[in-house]
Amino acid sequence: MNVNNSIAIDFNLSAKRLAHFRGVAETAIAINKRYDLHCSDEKLYPTGLYHDIAREWDSEALVRYAREHNLAVSEEEMAHPVLLHAPVGAAILAQAGMDGQQVLAVRHHTLGSSEMGTFGQIIFCADYIEPTRTYLDDTDRARLLEEETIEALCMKIIEREWRWRRDSGREASLAGRAFYRYLEEELGR
Ligand SMILES: [Fe+2]
Ligand SMILES: [Fe+2]
Q1: Relative to the alpha carbon of 86, which ligand is closest?
Q2: 95 Cα to the center of ligand 2, angstroms
Q3: Over its length of 189 residues, how does the chain's per-residue pLDDT go in tens digits?
Q4: How far is the CA of 15 from the centre of ligand 2 (A)?
Q5: Around ion ligand 2, which residues have CB less than 5 A away?
Q6: Closest listed ligand to the CA of 90
Q7: Which ligand is nearest to the CA of 110?
Q8: Could you tell me which of 75, 73, 80 has the C-alpha nearest to residue 59?
């Protein structure tokens, strides 16, 4: 099924958000090519385009949806409801006909997970480095893409995220730490 044509983006999306959606979709394809990962561009593009489909819901709506649909969510996601836009978005897209790989990628796009596979890692990285993100300049982006593997790129992104969290007085996420340990093992570090 062509998810691209089946979901109306009919909620109040800012131009900035739309540019982010397109940025993730296009960057996902670029990363797939850069690391020669052989994932399907036809599946990556709509996943990037819709990964934040629930991002503009307020906390109350996200918590209500997660409860009503009995979604498996973590304590840290419940404690910081904005994080619920990932599992809620995944549930919506599963209903709209996205396949398991796409749904897992959306499910884990914010914190990362060992469960999401290479396809999910592409979306995770694309979400962080797409061109409208202002915390990176072109030099930072080029440097990140010099990492030799998608796993190493994920680790660099998590490390940057940790630095940012530390500098703004926040703790690293539990799921992010588990994902980082998994990547270390994958790379034999
Ligand atoms: Fe997101
Ligand atoms: Fe995003």
Answers
A1: 1
A2: 20
A3: 344 444 555 455 778 888 999 999 999 999 999 999 999 999 999 999 999 999 989 999 999 999 999 999 999 999 999 999 999 999 999 999 999 999 999 999 999 999 999 999 999 999 999 999 999 999 999 999 999 999 999 999 999 999 999 999 888 889 999 999 999 999 887
A4: 14
A5: 52, 127
A6: 1
A7: 1
A8: 80
Domains located in the chain, CATH noted: 14-186 (1.10.3210.10)
Tell me the CA–centroid distance for residue 158 and ligand 2, in Å.
15
d(CA 142, CA 125): 13
Letter string b/e over residues 87-97, b meaning 16 or more CB atoms within 10 A of that residue's CB: bbbbbbbbeee
Ligand at shortest distance from the CA of 128: 2
Residue labelled with tokens 């796009």: 109
51 C-alpha to center of ligand 2: Å? 6
